């Protein structure tokens, strides 16, 4: 206990106190000491004192604490997470090729060559070069039935700092056709007398952002220039400067604006100019069940403004499977020598005046994608003011020989259209595409003699059906294609109006790679030997085939 330890301490102190006294005592005589009585030290009983500790009183007052934390914004950049399957073995990676080539020949006499190559260096630059030539001569069967087309293009992108990129491109087209639309039993023409050549040089560029920037703003400045001249010294120059910008909100809503000056100058005996300036703003709203685009197309031509809507509404009735859409659009479309001769290379441009076509279009329909089926069907109504029509022109020379050509005239036409497109893959490796369009033209818009009897040169019905089947793990493929057109209006040499019958063109083909780099192909065209006349007095080539080799590297 505690008090026992205290008694022992007192005894020890007492022993130390009497120790000096013992050492100073006078020495006793003799060597013997007799102890008379044992030392018996006793301590008196002491009372236990209990000491109870106490806690200090609690401080119940409330004090307000103020904390000052200085702001410290941190800009942390990190890559987006990548999701990878666990426990699933990756499939074999398909080998990629930078270049390809295709060379062939056929009957009637024809040559075909096409090739391209891609080149690049990581994120510094990339580009490609492409060349193509196709010529055919059926002169032995139909005098002067022959054509030749050679074209090529090279373009490159250079990637700069701050996510900027510059693109440049140069292209050239050389096309040669012959006017073989005449009575071959009665007349004969020399090659040099009825040939036409088109030479087109395209030069363009673009400055744009190659990657997403911090402002979610995409922009592009794209100047383009072309120059066209033909065998008869007709010339046309076109310049288009396109500026476009798109601002994204919440990564799905888009505000777009496009400003595009488009200038065209054509010269034969006189000079014609068509200069349009386009301003096209729009906003597109995306939600889970709808997409709504609201915008306009404002076009200036010769200080006169044309205003068109640019609106489309799409409702997702059943996900991507069933979508209902409707819209209203419009444009001022230029009819240039380049666009006219691309549609009809047998046109006589000296008889033609170039114009804008005002096109107002309203449409609605149904579209969707369900597993292996992708479809789109719509019905529409359009009013085309100054629509380009292609009327026959019969030229008679001093020797009495008559040659069929075409010239462009314009009329206001109402167009009722029904069209459908279906893409499906019912079995593995089989892809089928079908497109069908039916037009009903109404040229009686003013009830005057200026109204045309028909929409000359435009088909009322067109269809394109194709199928491609891939087999042997991609080493071979088989393909089939059928093109149809019906009821193309024309006026014959006696002035009577007529319509063509059903035009159909069935083609079969296939390709096979003997090695991973070398293969062969065979195309059999117009298998049914249909001598259809897409343009009056110009029958197409009958059965013809093309065979050759292909390479990829």
Please specify the SSE layout and strand pairing.
Elements (H helix, E strand, L loop, with lengths): L1 H22 L75 E9 L2 E12 L3 E13 L8 E14 L4 E15 L16 E15 L7 E14 L4 E15 L3 E15 L3 E16 L3 E12 L2 E15 L3 E13 L2 H7 L12 E15 L2 E24 L5 E23 L5 E13 L16 E13 L4 E16 L5 E3 L3 E11 L4 E8 L7 E3 L2 E2 L4 E9 L1
Structure description:
The chain has 553 residues and is mainly beta. Helix content is 5%, strand content 58%. It is built from two helices and 25 strands. The strands form two sheets. It has a 22-stranded antiparallel barrel. It has a two-stranded antiparallel ribbon with strand order 23-24. A hairpin with a 4-residue loop joins strand 18 (459-471) and strand 19. The relative contact order is 0.08.
Overall structural class, as computed from helix and strand content, comes to mainly beta
Approximately what portion of the residues adopt beta-strand conformation? over 45%
Number of helices: 2
For the biggest sheet, the summary is:
22 strands, antiparallel, barrel
Question: Please, what is the average pLDDT?
Answer: 87
Low-confidence stretches: 1-29, 80-89
Using the alpha-carbon principal axes, give the shape.
globular
Distance between the termini: 102 Å
Give the radius of gyration.
Answer: 46 Å
Q: What percent of the residues sit in helical stretches (DSSP H or I)?
A: under 10%
Order of helices and strands, N to C?
HEEEEEEEEEEEEEHEEEEEEEEEEEE
Q: How many β-strands, per DSSP?
A: 25
């Amino acid at each position: 206990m505690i008090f026992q330890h205290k008694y022992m301490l007192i005894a020890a102190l007492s022993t130390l106190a009497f120790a000096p006294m013992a050492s100073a005592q006078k020495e006793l005589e003799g060597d013997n000491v007799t102890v008379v009585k044992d030392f018996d030290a006793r301590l008196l009983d002491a009372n236990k004192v209990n000491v109870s500790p106490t806690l200090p009183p609690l401080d119940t007052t409330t004090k307000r604490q103020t904390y000052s934390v200085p702001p410290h914004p941190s800009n942390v950049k990190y890559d987006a997470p990548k999701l990878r399957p666990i426990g699933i073995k990756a499939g074999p990676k398909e080998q990629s090729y930078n270049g390809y080539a295709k060379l062939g020949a056929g009957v009637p006499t024809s040559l075909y060559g096409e090739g391209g190559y891609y080149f690049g260096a990581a994120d510094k630059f990339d580009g490609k070069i492409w060349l193509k030539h196709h010529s055919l001569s059926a002169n032995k069967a139909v005098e002067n039935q022959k054509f030749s087309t050679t074209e090529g293009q090279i373009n490159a992108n250079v990637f700069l700092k701050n996510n900027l990129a510059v693109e440049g491109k140069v292209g050239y087209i050389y096309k040669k056709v012959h006017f073989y639309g005449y009575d071959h039993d009665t007349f004969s023409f020399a090659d040099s007398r009825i040939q036409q050549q088109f030479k087109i040089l395209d030069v363009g560029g673009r400055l744009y952002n190659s990657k997403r920037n911090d402002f979610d703003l995409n922009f592009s400045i794209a100047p383009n220039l072309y120059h066209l001249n033909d065998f008869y010294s007709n010339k046309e120059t076109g310049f288009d400067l396109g500026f476009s910008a798109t601002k994204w909100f919440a990564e799905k809503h888009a505000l777009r604006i496009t400003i595009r000056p488009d200038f065209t100058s054509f010269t034969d005996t006189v000079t014609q100019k068509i200069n349009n300036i386009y301003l096209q703003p729009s906003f597109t709203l995306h939600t889970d069940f709808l997409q709504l685009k609201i915008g306009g197309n404002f076009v200036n031509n010769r200080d006169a403004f044309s205003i068109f809507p640019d609106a489309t509404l799409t409702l997702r009735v059943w996900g991507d499977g069933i979508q209902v859409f409707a819209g209203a659009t419009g444009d001022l479309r230029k009819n240039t020598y380049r666009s006219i001769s691309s549609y009809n290379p047998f046109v006589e441009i000296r008889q033609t005046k170039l114009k804008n076509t005002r096109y107002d279009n309203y449409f609605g329909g149904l579209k969707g994608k369900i597993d292996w089926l992708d479809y789109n069907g719509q019905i529409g109504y359009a009013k085309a003011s100054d629509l380009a029509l292609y009327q026959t022109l019969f030229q008679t020379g001093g020797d009495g020989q008559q040659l069929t050509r075409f010239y462009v005239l314009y009329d206001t036409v109402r167009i009722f259209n029904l069209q459908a497109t279906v893409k499906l893959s019912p079995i593995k490796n089989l892809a089928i595409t079908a497109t069908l369009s039916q037009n009903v033209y109404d040229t009686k818009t003013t009830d005057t003699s200026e109204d045309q009897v028909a929409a000359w040169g435009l088909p009322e019905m067109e269809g394109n059906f194709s199928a491609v089947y891939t087999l042997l793990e991609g080493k071979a493929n088989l393909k089939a294609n059928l093109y149809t057109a019906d009821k193309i209006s024309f006026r014959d040499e006696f002035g009577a109006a007529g319509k063509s019958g059903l035009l159909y063109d069935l083609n079969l083909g296939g390709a096979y790679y003997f090695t991973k780099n070398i293969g062969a192909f065979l195309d059999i065209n117009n298998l049914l030997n249909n001598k259809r006349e897409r343009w009056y007095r110009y029958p197409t080539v009958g059965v013809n085939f093309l065979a050759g080799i292909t390479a990829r590297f």
